[in-house]
Specification:
The complex is a heterodimer of chains A (400) and B (474).
Chain A (H helix, E strand, L loop, with lengths): L9 H13 L5 E5 L5 E11 L2 E13 L6 E11 L8 E2 L1 E2 L13 E9 L4 E11 L4 E2 L4 E13 L6 E2 L2 E2 L5 E13 L4 H23 L7 H15 L4 H23 L5 H11 L2 H17 L5 H13 L4 H12 L12 H5 L7 H19 L5 H21 L3
Helix pairs in contact in A: 2-3, 2-4, 2-5, 2-6, 2-7, 3-6, 5-7, 6-7, 6-8, 10-11
Chain B lengths: L1 E7 L3 E7 L5 E3 L14 E2 L1 E5 L2 E4 L1 H5 L7 E3 L11 E3 L2 E3 L1 H20 L2 E8 L5 H13 L4 E6 H12 L5 E9 L4 E9 L2 E10 L4 H20 L10 H11 L4 E3 L4 H4 L5 E3 H25 L9 E5 L6 H11 L12 H10 L6 E3 L5 E8 L6 E8 L7 E8 L8 E8 L10 E8 L11 E8 L4 E8 L5 E7 L1
Parallel strand pairs in B: 1-10, 10-11, 12-17, 14-18
Antiparallel strand pairs in B: 1-2, 2-3, 2-4, 5-6, 5-7, 8-9, 12-13, 13-14, 15-16, 19-20, 19-22, 21-24, 22-23, 24-25, 25-26
Helix pairs in contact in B: 2-3, 4-10, 5-6, 5-8, 8-9
Classes of the chains: A alpha+beta (400), B alpha+beta (474).
Bound molecules: adenosine-5'-triphosphate and magnesium ion (MG).
């Protein structure tokens, strides 16, 4: 079953309304295939508050190039060929709907339905779309794209990896169109240097939180390793090797420093805040929370450093709260350490009593409401435990 | 043909109807062994050879016999099985046995029963509510409506003071298993709910457990041994707890024979200390609820105490502290819910009720406004919205030629955006939709919540007119 409805696509619809109105002829790349089957890319623009949004509509027309009745699907892949066909580079999609299964590389797959030989598209019909603001080439600016359109057997579709099909079997028809385009988003090669550093910093923060209680648990080390593996996936093999080394070195360095109490996680977090994109900062915060929960116990020092990291990364508090809450319900016993109470509940004992009371009541309402939504027995118990501890905390701060 | 109201409690149940004069009355259980006083029947089930015994004899055997099941109301709506009589029973089956007994009590008093209303805690999950309906139909009851316990109690209060009272009241309901607090406006015979909250697992049985822990610690100190669970059962603890509401100090009951000349004393203050964390939880919930109603404590004209556990002195003190006033007490706080349910069940009820949405209701969508796609819970109907109400909102398809749209209806107690914290109470799909259409086809979602708490949801593809509908009894 496919796709949920989206709320943020208002912009896209706006464009579409205009596409229909203009039905323009400019900027069309098209290709006539066999059987009189045609595909084309039509670039349309829309002026909105003085800005220009580009939108590439990939369209098809004519006699469908099939030799038998078949459940047909359309598969679109894109390369950057600015430096020539022989140096083609992948394109990354920022929207998950337009990504390969195992990577973030652009790929668009859409079932057409059962068609038979002789069926014809009388008018230009939509086959796919590329939104320049949602894709990333190696560099930003004017780029030359190669758009590959494949009609494939939906019952036996080829797999795509890095934009390349694993076999020709099940491919009924293929065509390629070149198209020049302006890409506003910072290229991944440009961003890569920053990103690589940001992710190395993330590894270090992970080690810092894991070692906050004095030692690195197997489960914690395992999590960081997994994170590294996931992060380097989707790169070309050489790059992936290079990154692996960078991150492993970061891990070792941080481990040694932390062992002797010299790992300064605050300046690491500050640096990450400077250079990391929002997404990377969230990734880092998510990782440190998972590490905190990895051994099933929340250590007060872990909690303290996580709170500090969240502050330094300058992230939206409500988003931080969501990530934290998810980690909390996964703890074996959230309150094994008595002195973790304040950190866990997010209270500062120096606050005025009234503020603490109000904060606790809010936390209580939040977790009490969440109890019903938890399906796992263990999670329910944890949430129940949190409720009981909030009750105790209230007593502690409720004098008079 | 009679109409009845049943309070299916965690520890005790009661059934009521309106008498010839239109006054709500409790229907007595005439079997003294099952119910010594007749008005309440313990919600405990004893399996004895081929017999099923509900009531006092079963309660007495809690913790002593492997053939007894009790306190299953808290598990309603979960898949947890309860072992008794060498078999596993679902909470729904056990509740059905209690309801069947309550139905029989009513029939012995009234003859055939035409219709019944059963009560549930205000913040029961949807699963628990559905399970209660199922239990009622398994018991052979004709249930058209379910009503919240504090609301039922408010109806009863309004009835008792008909014409005389008007203003905003709080109903504080602390029973055997759950705590509920509702803020309600009463105007003569008209009762309008403003907001409700509850703690699903907080009540007398938790106090009983706390008392057992206390005794176990004392026993260990005295004898050096661990307290055997059969020596001092939950039933013993309950009885001592009840005594401590009247006395400052009692001798631990069940232990008498075992300890011979030694006795263990329990001070009321010790129990108060042991349960103070629970009381603190109720206080926070009260404060939140007053705030949610947009009120200050000064706006609350009276606090109506409901539920057996409100007889405990520190509970009353806590209420007084939070609401800054003496609460309104009645002689039988554990009967008000059944009496109110009977009023609600009646054909020509002297009181009428205006309800609000007890939860937030929404649907799951992908939000890509920040450039990062995120599955998000989008709320359509807010908690505390007056019923009936209706909200329509448009969403858009996410991909080219999208032929199906996943449709969900979610429920949550708080304003949650993270799908992790919501219950999906219905799931379906809209489709097949016409093929070959571009991204961004408008899908109109309408939630219409009617007076009987039925949610009518529709997911409609605007251009093709195709739509998926569902009615959910919430
Ligand atoms: N005098 C008393 N002092 C303390 N507790 C009492 C007293 N009388 C009754 N209780 C307690 O009140 C509880 C029963 O109250 P009630 O019948 O209102 O609850 P219920 O309807 O069974 O539970 P719920 O409404 O939570 O499902 C039991 O836990 C009982 O021990
Ligand atoms: Mg009750």
């Amino acid at each position: 079953m496919e796709v949920i409805i989206i709320i943020g696509v208002i912009a896209i619809i706006g464009i579409y309304a205009l596409v229909k109105a203009q039905e323009g002829t400019e900027n069309i790349s098209s290709l006539s295939g066999s059987y009189g089957f045609d595909v084309r890319i039509r670039k349309t623009t829309e002026r909105k508050d003085g800005t220009t949004d580009e939108f590439l509509a990939i369209e098809a027309k004519g006699l469908l190039p099939v030799k038998r009745s078949i459940d047909l699907a359309c598969l679109i892949t894109v390369f950057d060929i600015t430096d020539g066909r022989e140096n083609k580079m992948p394109i990354i999609s920022l929207l998950e709907f337009f990504q390969e299964e195992s990577s973030k590389i652009f790929s668009f797959y859409q079932e057409v339905g059962v068609v038979s030989p002789g069926e014809k598209l009388m008018d230009w019909a939509p086959a796919g779309a590329i939104i320049p603001e949602m894709i990333q080439a190696p560099y930003s600016g004017r780029r030359k794209l190669q758009v590959n359109i494949h009609l494939v057997d939906a019952d036996n579709p080829p797999e795509v990896e890095f934009g390349v099909l694993d076999s020709r079997e099940g491919v009924e028809w293929s065509g390629a169109l070149n198209h020049e385009i302006f890409l506003p988003i910072k290229g991944y090669k440009e961003a890569a240097a920053n990103r690589d550093e940001a992710q190395a910093l993330t590894v270090k923060l992970g080690v810092a939180v894991a070692m906050a209680d004095g030692s690195l648990h197997d489960s914690e080390g395992e999590l960081i390793k997994k994170w590294i593996q996931k992060t380097i996936r989707g790169h070309y093999p050489e790059k992936s090797q290079e990154l692996k080394k960078t991150y492993n070195d970061a891990f070792k360095e941080a481990y040694i420093l932390a062992g002797s109490g010299r790992l300064d996680y605050e300046s690491i977090a500050r640096r990450l805040n400077q250079i990391g994109e929002l997404k990377l900062k969230f990734d880092a915060y998510e990782l440190v929370n998972k590490i905190m929960a990895a051994d099933g116990v929340a250590h007060p020092d872990e909690l303290k450093s996580i709170r500090k990291i969240g502050e330094l990364l300058d992230l939206d508090p409500s988003e931080l709260e969501q990530i934290r809450s998810r980690a909390l319900v996964n703890l074996r016993d959230a309150f094994q350490h008595d002195d973790a109470l304040e950190e866990l509940l997010g209270i500062d004992p120096s606050w005025p009593k009234a503020k603490i009371k109000a904060h606790l009541a809010r936390e209580f309402q939040k977790w009490n409401g969440r109890l019903n939504s938890l399906s796992e027995e263990k999670e329910r118990e944890n949430a129940q435990n949190i409720l009981n501890r909030i009750g105790e905390a209230r007593r502690k701060y409720d004098i008079g | 043909m009679s109409h009845i109201g049943i309070d299916l409690g965690t520890t005790y149940s009661a059934v009521a109807t309106l008498d010839e004069s239109g006054r709500p009355v409790i229907l007595k259980n005439k079997n003294e062994q099952e119910s010594p006083k007749g008005n309440l029947t313990a919600s405990a089930v004893l399996f004895k050879s081929d017999q099923v015994i509900v009531g006092e004899q079963a309660r007495k055997r809690i913790g002593l016999s492997a053939n007894v099941a009790a306190r299953f109301k808290r598990l309603m709506g979960t898949s947890k099985g309860i072992e008794a009589d060498g078999r596993s029973h679902t909470p729904t089956e056990l509740s059905a046995l209690v309801l069947k007994r309550m139905k029989k009590i009513a029939e012995d008093n009234l003859g055939q029963i035409e219709k019944a209303v059963v009560t549930i805690p205000a913040n029961f999950s949807n699963e628990a509510r559905v399970a209660t309906m199922k239990a009622a139909s398994m018991a052979g009851l004709n249930i058209e409506q379910i009503i919240n316990e504090p609301t039922a109690a408010a109806l009863h209060y309004a009835y008792q003071h008909k014409g005389e009272v008007s203003g905003t009241y709080a109903v504080y309901d602390l029973g055997g298993g759950t705590f509920d607090i509702s803020v309600i406006s009463i105007n003569g015979g008209q009762v309008d709910v403003i907001t409700s909250n509850g703690i699903p697992k907080l009540g007398g049985v938790d106090f009983d457990s706390a008392l057992i822990e206390l005794i176990a610690a004392k026993y260990k100190e005295e004898t050096g041994e661990n307290l055997d669970q059969e020596l001092y059962t939950l039933t013993d603890a309950e009885e001592d707890k009840i005594k401590l509401s009247a006395k400052k100090r009692v001798i631990a009951g069940g232990l008498r024979e075992d300890l011979e000349d030694e006795t263990i004393f329990i001070e009321r203050s010790e129990v108060e200390e042991a349960i103070s964390g629970f009381i603190a939880q109720t206080e926070m919930t009260c404060e939140t609820t007053i705030g949610e109603a947009g009120l200050n404590v000064e706006d609350i004209k009276g606090v109506i105490l409901v539920g057996g556990s409100t007889r405990i002195p520190i509970v009353r003190e806590s209420v007084k502290r939070v609401f800054k006033q003496e609460p309104i007490t009645t002689e039988n706080p554990d009967e008000a819910v059944a009496l109110g349910a009977a009023l609600y069940a009646a054909v020509d009820s002297p009181v009428s009720l205006g309800e609000v949405a007890n939860h937030y209701f929404g649907t799951l969508v992908v939000d890509d406004r920040q450039g990062v796609e995120k599955l998000t819970n989008d709320i359509l109907i807010e908690k505390n919205k007056k019923l009936p109400c209706r909200v329509t909102r448009s969403y858009f398809t996410a991909s080219y030629g999208q032929r199906y749209v996943e449709c969900e209806v979610t429920q949550s107690s708080n304003l949650e955006t993270d799908p992790q914290w919501v219950n999906i109470i219905w799931k379906g799909e809209l489709g097949p939709l016409p093929s070959g259409r571009p991204v961004g086809q408008e899908i109109e979602v309408t939630f219409r919540y009617d007076k009987n708490q039925i949610m009518h949801c529709s997911f409609k593809d605007v251009t093709s007119g195709k739509q998926t509908d569902v009615d959910i009894d919430t």
